[in-house]
Amino acid sequence: MILSLARRFLVAALVLGTLTLVPIRASASEVLVFAAASLKNALDKIGSDFERRTGHEVTVSYAASSVLARQIQLGAPADVFISANVDWMDVLQDQDQIKANTRVDLLGNRLVLIGGPDQTGVGEIRADMDLSAALDGGHLAMALVDAVPAGIYGKAALQNLALWEEVQSQIAQTDNVRAALALVATGAAPLGIVYRSDAQVEERVQVLGTFPSDLHLPIIYPAAVTTWGRPEAQAFLTYLQSGPAREVFADQGFALPGS
């Protein structure tokens, strides 16, 4: 009798332990979106608009595209993935973790040099600019230059301008582009390289100059429904391409397809 009860308790414990290992899925009407950190302001508004129109709840997890892609690889239950570059979406597509027929190039962006409100603008970034002098002993804030799209684009631009070696030792790398933006906004770094859309939503910084787009690969934000994404996920992805959503993206400084 005692042995039988013990076995029952053991089975119950194992079942409970197994349940805790299963990812907790959102409710049937919720859409879980994994999105690049640079999309936060725009997607917060678009998500609210979608909720009001459809009754479906939208939950968005923001981080660097590389971090989000790895979480999806490990089984995170995202319904929609929006990356800040095509490479991480390609990885997931190659591994059959997105529905390839849902993939769209949603947005574009530009790379800019930002500084505090008292900094002097430089216009178009050129190879003959003295970036090290502009830093004046401070740091250049950038997202991780070998992993995060904004950092990868920024490093490529600096290398093509022959400025990378000059400032490499002064770069302060952050986990995502919004963290780099925050370093400049709070005065912790005099300059930073972020997306135009990031600079537009932060009143404590100004755009000092814009990097020519031919200095790096095109900045494209692909979006897709994951392989296990629910029907509401496709509805949200469709809404992201609608007129109201495109208007929000444009207001936030993103480039629209065909523009």
Automatic annotation (TrEMBL):
Which subcellular locations apply to this protein?
Cell membrane
Provide the Gene Ontology terms for cellular component: outer membrane-bounded periplasmic space; plasma membrane
Q: Which SUPFAM superfamilies match?
A: Periplasmic binding protein-like II
Position of the signal peptide: none
Question: What coarse category fits the chief subcellular location reported for this protein?
Answer: membrane
What is a biological process (GO) this protein takes part in?
molybdate ion transport
Q: Where does molybdate bind?
A: 38, 65, 150, 177, 195
Q: Which GO terms describe its molecular function?
A: metal ion binding; molybdate ion binding; tungstate binding
Alphabetized UniProt keyword annotations? Cell membrane, Membrane, Metal-binding, Molybdenum, Signal, Transport, Tungsten
Q: What PANTHER family does the database record attribute to this sequence?
A: MOLYBDATE-BINDING PERIPLASMIC PROTEIN (PTHR30632), MOLYBDATE-BINDING PROTEIN MODA (PTHR30632:SF17)
What does the annotation say about its assembly with partners? Answer: The complex is composed of two ATP-binding proteins (ModC), two transmembrane proteins (ModB) and a solute-binding protein (ModA).
User: Which family is this protein grouped under?
Assistant: Belongs to the bacterial solute-binding protein ModA family.
Free-text function comment from the UniProt entry: Involved in the transport of molybdenum into the cell. Part of the binding-protein-dependent transport system ModABCD.
Name it.
Answer: Molybdate-binding protein ModA
**Organism per entry:** Ruegeria meonggei
Gene expressing this chain: modA
